[in-house]
Design brief:
Strand content: 25-35%
Number of strands: 10
CATH architecture of the largest domain: Sandwich
Shape: elongated
Order of helices and strands: HEEEEEHEHHHEEHHEEH
Mean pLDDT: 87
Distance between the termini: 66 Å
CATH class of the largest domain: Mainly Beta
Amino acid sequence: MTEPAALPADPWLRDLSPELVAHLQAMSVRRRLRDGELLYARGDAAEGLYGVVSGRIRLSVPTAGGREMLIVQFEPGSWFGEVSMFDGEPRPQDARAVGDSEILLLPRTRFLALLEQHPELYRGFTRLLCRKLRTALDYVEDALTLPLAARLGKRLLELARVYGVEREEGRLIDLPLPQDDLANMLGATRQSVSKQLKAWEQRGWIALRYRHVVVRDAPALERALAQDAARDAR
C-alpha cells in the first residue's frame, strides 16, 4: 500500500495538532503531472486546496492578444487554490506544471466538513490569506508608485532571494524567466524591460542567459534602487 505523501510545509499548518495534520494527510489525494500538463483551466469548478510537493505550478491568464500572462509560480511547500475553494466560484486562472511535478489535493467537500469540526483550521487560513493579500497589495502599490526600473529591480532581487541558486558567476534565478514573462508581471512592454536588463548587464550587475537571469551584484542593484527612490522623494 502506498503511504500518503507528507503535507507540504507551510506556516498555516504550524499550530495544528499532530492528529489534525494526520487527518489532513489521510484525506489528501496525490497527483503527478508531466511538464506542461494542465492541472485546471480558468473557469473550472474548484476541486479543493492544492499543495506542491515537488516541481512547480504556474498560474496564468490569457491576454486579449491571445498570449499567456504569468500571475505567480508556486514552489514546493506552497499551497494555493483557497479562494475558489472557499467562495465556490470558478477558477480565475489556468494552473500548469512547470517540469514534472507532484501535488496533493485536499478535496473541497471533505475539507470544508473538517473545517466545521475543527475551527482552529480557520486561524491557519487567516495567516495564509493575509500573507497573500499583503503580497498582492505590495505589487499594486509598486505598480502605482514606482517607475519601471525600480519595479523590475525589486522583482529581480525578490526572485533571486526566493529562487536563487549560487553559481560561480552569481545568483541564478532558478526558474524559467523569459523577458515576456517579466514584462507581463510588471505591466510593461518587452522592449522596455529588455532595454533596462541590457543596461544592467553592461554594468555587470546581472547576466542574461537563455530564459534565465543571473544576479551578479545585488548590492549595486540595491544601491541604485535606493538612490532612485531618494531622488524621486525630493
